[in-house]
Every structure is written in structure tokens, then in C-alpha cells.
Amino acid sequence: MLTIGQLAEYAGVTTRAVRHYHQIGLLPEPDRDASGYRRYDATAVVSLIKIRTLANAGVPLSQIRLMLDADETTFADAAERIDERLREEIDRLEASRKQIAQLVAGDSLVLPPEVVRYLDRLREIGASERMVAAERDGWILIAARWPDQVTTWMPSKFAQLEDPRLVRIYRLGSELLETEGDTEPGLRELADIMAEMAEEAYRRGEPDVAESVHDDLPFDLLDSLALEASPGARRLLDLMHERGWARWTRLERWPKPPA
After folding, report:
1. Which of 83, 103, 123 is the last residue of a domain?
2. Distance (Å, whole) CA 136 – CA 76
3. Where in the sequence is the domain holding 153, given as residue range(s)?
4. Best CA proximity match to 30, nearest among 59, 52, 6
5. Is residue 129 located within the same domain as residue 225?
């Protein structure tokens, strides 16, 4: 006859687990001997080993009693259902692992590869990580709204980076994000370059993304995102207004023409 400690050690579980199995009615609790100790026989050892085996296989404790009492056919059916549940759980965990891997990868968590390559290109031309992070957040808004179109816009975005003025915008913007002193000169230079490029694009009649998709909300969110991220964004918007442009995220004259 075994004590609870000897039983637990033999079956490869803890005494706490044995007591829990008693509490939920999974393992019958034996009578105590004259000394007040529980004594377990061989049948209890066999039962506990079966319980441990089923529990380790992923069978919920609530179903183990049914399986222990089941005939061969019922046991097989129950095992098949549990196996299916475990397969579903494995699929869920594999999906979670892929998401974690993407999270470790950084930008690729919620962005298509083309946009990730664009962000890497920004790093190559000298954009700071803070600037790249702001750009990434903006693309997250765009990609969520237009997941199918966003990749078709990327070739033109890469081509625009061949213009040294745009490179200057990203580098100067990176500097301004880190500047704690007077940013007015830098903001004015930034507004001048952006307004100049906007005017050229407007005169060439280049299509504006916002017009092609007929949706203002993402661009309103982009403006809001910039205003929330940087104290200088409000001043930059004012400077763009002074130069005749409503914003920097799309080609739109200021003041806005009457409808």
C-alpha cells in the first residue's frame, strides 16, 4: 500500500495533482488507515497513470472520466474528436508563431513587402528611424484602406526618390524631428520644397491618389497622424497654406475652391 507521496512519484505527477483529481472526482479517494493516512492500492496506481497519460495527451480533465469508463468504440470516437481539436489548436499556434515572426521582423507585420522595401530605401537615403516610423504608420493607414491598390503605387514612389529634393525632404524632416530648438528655418525650407514639387506635379496634371480612390478619410487621418506625432506639423501645415496648398498628403489648393 502506498502513501500519496509514493503514489504521485510512481505515476510521475505531483501530490497536488492527486489531491485535485480527488477533488473533482476523477480519482477515487481511499479510506484512511488507523494512523489517519490515505493508502493507495495497485488499482489506484493504474488509474492515476491512465489519467496522467490522457491529460498529457491534451484530453481535458472534464472528459477523462468519460474516456476511462468508455468501451473501445466510444473511446476511439472521443479520441478522434480530441485529436481534431488538437489539430485546430496546432493550426492556431502555428498562425500565432508566424505573427510573432513577423513582429520580430518589424515593418512586415502589417505591411506588404513592397512597402517594407520602400521603408528600407528611406533608411538608405538617410531618413532617421523616427522618420521611418512615422512613414510606416502612415502606410499602415493606407494599406489597411486599399490593400489591393497599395502595391501598384509603389513603383512611382520609388521613382520619386530619384529626385534629390524629396531626399532632402526626408533628411530635413528627420533633423527637425530631433531638433529641440528653433525649427522655423528648417520648416520654411521644408515647406518651400514641398510646395515647389506640388506645383510642378499640379501643372503636369499628375493624378492624385486621393482623387483616384475618391476617399478623403485616410488622408484626413494621415494629416491627423502627423499633427499628433510632431509639434512642428501644425506650423508646417500653416506654411503650406501660405504657399497655396491645403496639406502635404495630396494635391489640393488653398483656400479650397467653392464646390
Report:
1. 103
2. 52
3. 107-242
4. 6
5. yes
